[in-house]
Amino acid sequence: MDKKLVQIQEKESNSSIMDKLRILSDAAKYDVACTSSGVDRRGSKNGMGNSIAAGICHSFSADGRCISLLKILMTNYCIYDCKYCKNRVSNDIPRAAFTPEEIARLTVDFYRRNYIEGLFLSSGIIENPDTTMELLYQTIFLLRTKYHFYGYIHVKGIPGADAALIEKIGYLVDRMSVNLELPTAEALKELAPNKHRKIILKPMRQIQNGININKNELVVYKNAPKFVSGGQSTQMIIGATPESDYQIVQVAESLYQKFQLKRVFYSAFVNVNEDKSLPALSSGPPLLREHRLYQADFLLRFYGFEAKELLSETHPNFNVFLDPKADWALQHLELFPMEINRASYEMLLRVPGIGVKSAQRIVRARRNGNLEFEHLKKIGVVLKRALYFITCNGKMMYPTKIEEDYITRNLLNIKEKLPFDADGVTYRQISLFDDIRFQDKLAEGMTYAG
Amino acid sequence: MQDRNILVCEDSPEGIFSAVYYAYEQKMNPNITFIQLNVVEDYELFSKYFSVETDFEKAEKVDKTIVKRFGEISYSYLWYALYSRNEERGNAVYHTIARGLSGAYKGELVNYLQDPYVLAVSKMRQSVWCEAHHYMGFIRFQELKNKILYSEIEPKNQVLPMIARHFADRFPGENFIIKDKGRNFYVVHEAGKGYVFHQQEEQGVTITDDMYSKEEVEIQHLFQIFHKTIAIEERTNLKLQRQLLPLRFRENMIDFC
Q1: Which domain holds residue B71?
Q2: Which of A58, A234, B13, B154 is the most buried (most CB within 10 A)?
């Protein structure tokens, strides 16, 4: 084994599990994906654990994010120096490293008490990509074989690691993800000097091919071992570099199409390092932008939209006030109003206020006779949004104008439910003090006065 | 106005099924027949009251008819509705069955959402399913000295049957007990075997810290640390946290310190 690794491990054997957990969960918290979905696996008599395709949230942390998996780093020692990352080599922060045995024990102890749905294991680059991946492999091998743990495991693929290692680990885990880190190759070059787009995409492609080959094997041999059966995902940081929403959505779309990813996660940039090459964010992480991107992402995956329908070169960013679907509908008023009792499922999905569930319910229920507005309400359609775009049996709910300005005004009057909106008030009387910069000045003035 | 028939039955799935059987046996018109659970508090004028005894054989016949006539999906919807705490569950289930047997629908019975009773069953199923799913995540087991995993919950609906099945599959090698505090209803799972339900009349023992195993407190503490550090400070949003993990669940969780 590498000398440096041995040194680190010796040094680490003295610190307590508690300290390590504190350091290594803190270091892992910026990883977005915590989902435990996509795999249905029954429990097994000789071990512990199963997996539910819908995924299970076990708790929610103070930022409102779901805690489903024990999300930790193997170690936060790292040889890379990515400017946005807290664990970069040039930062002087407390470092720690778990042993495979420690992680396995912790996972099982938490899992038995139903704190978690499984493990999400990532790592800083210790020594080199191969050593790191090998350590991750040892941990998961231990969990699956010695502890007979059959819960959910999500592991990060380390770009640059040996293909054979990635293949080996793929047969043990439910999901693998390789971080794209930043939307474009140029941004990556600037902020993550040790990483290259090509090297990131290589394991992604390998996993994709592995999954496809495995699917064919499973058709022939039902009991063939499964390879990354929960699919792969990736994540990118939003707002650290100057890409437009259009570029980002296009990148996501091509990842879904060309790499068959299950999910792309977006992470609003949090400026932990205050590096000079990174933007200063006076109003905190760009949460609204992240939210709009997730909305668009769902439109791509479940609503049959294409990136170019939502944005364009001339209209490169999402509307702050309207969600992407309402925005799209307002640009395509010629398609509306739509008759609920006749419109196809695909078209129903495009109506603001109708989601996947209500569209499915409409299609199923209308086989037994025409639907009225009262039925739609009970089925779960958000009528105050949908009413401008639909008819039931040829009638609109209220007499309304099909006119962009009129509908926009009315849609804006409805409070949009935003997940990060602390007091729940989105629209209020405009006051003199609404100017954000003015508020800063006000605060400054107060400190001077004090 | 025609006199209404009110069937008074025991508040249990078998009780409701017995009432459904009775209604068909007596050839009652579903449009004027209703089910009342347990005791009657205010008798209505112009209503005939029938007291229905719970009969397991008849209930089983109804159960079999449902799965045979309406298929697995509708069958599971009706059962979820039976576990709901909604007081109209008896009526919703009975009238959905009546609608189904009348044949005035196409496709899957529970998709016929224009019918108010079918819609009610679908809503009840949704709320029971959601609560069961929440508890699959939010239950916390505490390890006692004898390695038994113990947990208490306070669900609104009767969710223990769904939860028991889930955990029996997940932890086949563990001894565990889950207690529904409000109902004094227990599920007891024995390692390597199966699980049984147990209804107790009185409040059982309360678990105190000194009954924990040696490592229990330390592991709880470890999870509390994890729970705290995993949050991104810049994104703090307690309102969202409360929305997704309502306070009523937190009483039996060890996550917060």
Answers
A1: 4-129
A2: A58
Q: Which of A65, A66, A270 sits opposite B234 (nearest CB)?
A: A270
d(CA A134, CA A142): 12
In a domain, B134, yes or no: no
Same domain, B152 and B43: no
Chain B positions in Cβ-Cβ contact with residue A368 (cut-off 8 Å): 105-107, 111-112, 114
Q: Are strands A59-60 and A66-67 parallel, antiparallel or unpaired?
A: antiparallel
Distance from CA of B46 to the nearest CA of A (A): 31
Which residues in A lie closer than 8 A to residue B141 (C-beta atoms)? 112-114
What's the rounded Cα separation, in Å, for the pair B47 and A159? Answer: 75
Supply B20's token pair. Answer: 């459904």
CB contact under 8 A, B237 and A113: no
Cα pseudo-dihedral A154, A159, A161, A162, rounded to 10: 100
Q: CA-CA distance, A427 to B1, in Å (whole number)?
A: 52
Using a CB-CB cut-off of 8 Å, the residues of chain B touching A64 are 235, 237-241, 243-244
Tell whether B257 is covered by a domain: no
Check CB contact under 8 Å for B225 and A21: yes
Choose among A48, A67, A378: nearest Cβ to B230. A67
| B48 in A contact zone (CB under 8 Å) | no
Q: Please check whether residue A154 is in contact with residue A119, taking contact to mean a CB–CB distance below 8 angstroms.
A: yes
Provide the pLDDT for residue A2: 62
Residue window 190-209, chain B: list those with CB within 8 Å of chain A: 192
Phi/psi of residue A232, each to 5°?
-115, 155
Pair B168, B246 in one domain? yes
* B178/B232 same-domain check: yes
Interval A63-73: pLDDT, tens: 999 999 999 99
Please indicate, yes or no, if residue B240 is contained in any of the structural domains. yes
Range scoring the smallest mean pLDDT among A275-284, B201-210, B229-238:
B201-210
- Is B222 in the A-facing interface, judged by CB distances under 8 Å? yes
φ, ψ (nearest 5 deg) of residue B256? -105, 135
Of A62, A110, A367, the CB nearest to B238: A62
What pLDDT does residue B210 have?
83
Closest to A95 in 3D by CA, of A156, A11, A195: A11
Instruction: Answer yes or no: do A330 and A218 share one domain.
Output: no
| Amino acid letter, residue B163 | I
CB of B214 within 8 Å of any CB in chain A?
no
Say how many domains are in chain A.
Answer: 2
Within a domain: A400? yes
Measured between CB atoms, which of A42, A54, A368 is closest to B112? Answer: A368
Residues of A in Cβ contact (< 8 Å) with B244: 57, 60, 64, 66
Residue-number span of the structural domain to which A388 is assigned: 324-423
Could you count the other beta carbons within 10 Å of the beta carbon of residue A139? 26
Who wins on pLDDT, A15 or B75? Answer: B75
Beta bridge partners, A369, equal none
When pLDDT is averaged across residues B213-222 and rounded to a whole number, the result is 92
**Is A355 inside any structural domain?**
yes
Say which of B223, B232, B234 has its CB closest to residue A115.
B223
Q: Note the pLDDT of residue B149.
A: 95
Q: B145 and B121: one domain? A: no
Same-domain check for residues A186 and A69: yes
pLDDT band at A218 (very low <50, low <70, confident <90, very high): confident
Q: Is the dihedral of CA A353, A359, A363, A369 positive or negative?
A: negative
**Encoding tokens for residue A398?**
């209220």
Q: Is A63 in contact with B133 (Cβ distance < 8 A)?
A: no
Residue B40 lies in a domain: yes
Where is the domain boundary, B80, B100, B129?
A: B129
Cα distance between residue A264 and residue A183, in whole Å: 11
